[in-house]
Amino acid sequence: MTTIVNDKGETVAYLYLTIILDVSQSKVLGLILGNCVFGQHTAPIGKFFKDTFRKQNGKIVAKLGKEVFPKKPADEKKVLTDAWSMLSNVREHVCMWVEENEKWTQESFASFLEVQEVRALAV
Question: What range does the domain containing 16 cover?
Answer without folding.
Answer: 2-122
